[in-house]
Task: inverse folding
């Protein structure tokens, strides 16, 4: 019973091992909405927000490792934004300054919403999540982690410790459609990551299916069509085919934020715009 | 482990919360238990910003902070803005610019703007708009709110220069 403020990952895992039913609290921006509505009553809570090791990030070889407790505000830090721009851009579109100060990367992933803003970016970058319990540490890929609408592979007693992301050479873009700029849950979101060395353009999309995913057919097409030698922008015909392939891979639904038809249209626009911007970004 | 009795530090003073339930938000505890009703309760989902407070010098929505998890943190509410019974410079600027209509969004805006000026004493309008993008004013008096920030920023600059010249 009560609220436990953990000081280390090991302490947190021990608390969860003893009482797996404990509610895990990160930034609170999703959880407290449920609590305030009366949809959830808290009996015992494990607060991860004071664990310093979860707020750290480091560069390890050609990868960046982000602690799960890093806030959206932290993700927009210029040093970090230079390494994983699409993730920083995604973090920048979340809520408001108040929400970005409180909400965390790990919290966004654990909530696993189809509209989770960091997910399309991490999916596009092939990120891996490190999950930890008192007895086991395992890694799962971003695409394996989210299993459905707000469901994930976390087992009782497990928390997300960190996210490992390859650092790609080349520009990136994250775009999101909503009714206005601040405080918007995405109607459609898209991340485009250019991987010069791997000669691949990677596309992650959100809010157009139960689980954010990579648009494989569109990726294959554009990566093949793209002139990696001259690095020049693709023709209009190629861009339009690419955006159509992205739209074809989606399975959007009608809901209170938008219709399936609108989402199909909007994702096409985002794909085209992101590709154009990524190509422009390369020239500059 | 924290039981149902815990201590919060609000505006530099310690308050004991007795018989708290683990589900209580910081906003609820501030208003209903500590009788600090300056922070307003409107949406309870982080959309409106009228409950904005500082936790360790960062603006957050107090409705989305679990009260018992704020133990050991420095909490500043609208009540902590002025000193010695005087309203703060930002509050004075709001009065001068007529930036208050119904007043419900005002406490949250004041906390957000005070913190903005602490970190960026001379913000341009875009920066101000961005900084208060999480604070909704449904009387739509944003023009005067922006004017109030300009006044407060100018006053702070003048004050800073005065102190340097002393």
Result:
């Amino acid at each position: 019973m009560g609220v436990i403020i953990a000081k280390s990952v090991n302490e947190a895992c021990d608390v969860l091992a003893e009482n797996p039913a404990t509610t895990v609290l990160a930034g609170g921006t999703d959880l407290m909405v449920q609590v305030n509505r009366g949809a959830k009553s808290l009996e015992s809570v494990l607060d991860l927000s004071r664990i310093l090791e979860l707020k750290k990030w480091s560069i390890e070889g050609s990868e960046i490792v982000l602690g799960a407790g890093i806030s959206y505000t932290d993700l927009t830090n210029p040093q970090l934004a230079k390494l994983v721009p699409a993730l920083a851009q995604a973090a920048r579109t979340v809520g408001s300054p108040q929400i970005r100060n409180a909400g965390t990367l790990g919290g966004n992933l654990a909530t696993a919403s189809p509209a989770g803003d960091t997910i399309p970016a991490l999916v596009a970058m092939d990120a891996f999540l490190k999950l930890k319990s008192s007895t086991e540490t395992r890694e799962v890929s971003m695409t394996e982690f989210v299993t459905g609408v707000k469901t994930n592979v976390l087992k009782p007693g497990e928390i997300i410790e960190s996210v490992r992301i390859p650092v790609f050479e080349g520009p990136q873009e994250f775009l999101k459609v909503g009714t206005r700029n601040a405080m918007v849950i995405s109607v459609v979101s898209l991340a485009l990551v250019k991987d010069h060395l791997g000669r691949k353009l990677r596309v992650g999309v959100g809010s157009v299916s139960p689980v954010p995913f990579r648009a494989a057919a569109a990726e294959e097409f554009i990566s093949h069509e793209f002139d990696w030698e001259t690095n020049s922008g693709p023709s209009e015909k190629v861009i339009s085919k690419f955006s159509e392939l992205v739209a074809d891979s989606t399975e959007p639904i009608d809901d209170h934020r938008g219709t399936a038809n609108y989402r199909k249209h909007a994702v096409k626009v985002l794909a085209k715009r992101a590709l154009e911007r990524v190509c422009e970004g390369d020239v500059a | 482990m924290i039981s149902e009795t815990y201590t919060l530090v609000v505006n530099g003073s310690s308050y004991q919360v007795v018989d708290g339930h683990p589900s209580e938000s910081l906003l609820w505890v501030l208003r209903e238990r500590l009788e600090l009703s300056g922070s307003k309760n409107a949406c309870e989902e982080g959309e409106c910003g009228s409950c904005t407070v500082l936790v360790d010098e960062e603006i957050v929505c107090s409705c989305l902070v679990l009260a018992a998890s704020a133990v050991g943190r420095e909490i500043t509410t609208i009540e902590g803005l002025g000193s010695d019974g005087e309203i703060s410079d930002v509050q004075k600027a709001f009065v001068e610019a007529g930036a208050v209509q119904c007043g419900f969004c005002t406490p949250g805006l004041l906390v957000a703007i005070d913190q903005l000026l602490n970190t960026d004493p001379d913000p341009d309008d875009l920066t101000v708009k961005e900084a208060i993008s999480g604070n909704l004013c449904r009387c739509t008096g944003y023009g005067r709110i922006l004017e109030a920030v300009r006044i407060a920023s100018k006053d702070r600059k003048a004050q800073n220069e005065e102190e340097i010249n002393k």
